[in-house]
Amino acid sequence: MGYDMQMAFPPDDVVAGYVPPLPGYEDRFLCSNHAMDDMVAVMVAAAVMDTTAVPEDFPAWPPKGISQKRVDTLGAVFCVEGAEGLIGHDCTDQMTSREERLFDAWALATNAILTRRSDQPGKVLSCKFSSQRSWYVWPEECQWIASGLLAGLARQESALHAPYVRSGMAPEAAAAWIRKWALFNQMAAENGGYRVS
User: Fold this and answer.
1) Per the CB 3.0–4.6 Å rule, which of 4, 49, 75, 124 could disulfide with 141?
2) How far apart are CA 194 and CA 95, in angstroms?
3) pLDDT tens digits, residue range 32-81?
4) Are 148 and 155 in contact (CB under 8 A)?
């Protein structure tokens, strides 16, 4: 299992030098769990991560007042809606108005957590890269990541490569991977940010 980051909108143009991990899917970036752990360490080294904030507990599923049996009957499925990719559902026509209100309240509370921003200027919550819960990385957060990583690469900071080098990757390959991630974030900044799934 790994991480799949998908932009809110497919890019019209690809940044020079960017080669997507999946050919033809310029709006997506894929990596393994281990590679993401290393990338978080790289982003911490680039001083763009807020590692102090602890995410709140997510509301319980199913929403309070709707039984698991009823959810199974409805076949309720999450979907991503709108520019911010908010969690929603695709079974409104089958829900009672009470069930829809309960689900909408649950979705609102869940989205408040998934779209939360750091209190520290120029930093992104590291918890957004700790699970595949559909965390939303805002466009300005994408730009902070891209700028921090590209600046670190330009200064040839060895601390930036260290997590990957410790994992056995050559420094040049580590720099190429970090650059690819930075360029993805640069494009995402212009295309509505992305979801971390």
Assistant:
1) 124
2) 29
3) 999 999 999 999 999 999 999 887 888 888 888 888 888 777 765 555 45
4) no
